[in-house]
Amino acid sequence: MPGKKRSKSVLKNIRKSRRRYLENLKKKKNLKAAIKKIRKASTKDEALKLFPEVQSIIDKSVQDGIIKKNTAARYKARLAKFIETKLT
Fold it and tell me: How confident is the model at residue 68 (pLDDT cuts 50, 70, 90)?
């Protein structure tokens, strides 16, 4: 807001908030990219190799508060089902 004075703590909180937002955005993009990578796998073996890595990324996203626990469980279940049914 132009013309309005802000205390040092408010400015610091704005900086912290922006930094956290950018870090969370980066983690969310990494998560989405990992999921897409498994969906674009051409063979079942390739997808099975990627699956533990993607599971780890999903679990870390829950720890960091990027996604909720049930969302993570849904992602993992759907990916496992995808690997079993779609790829042969």
Answer: very high
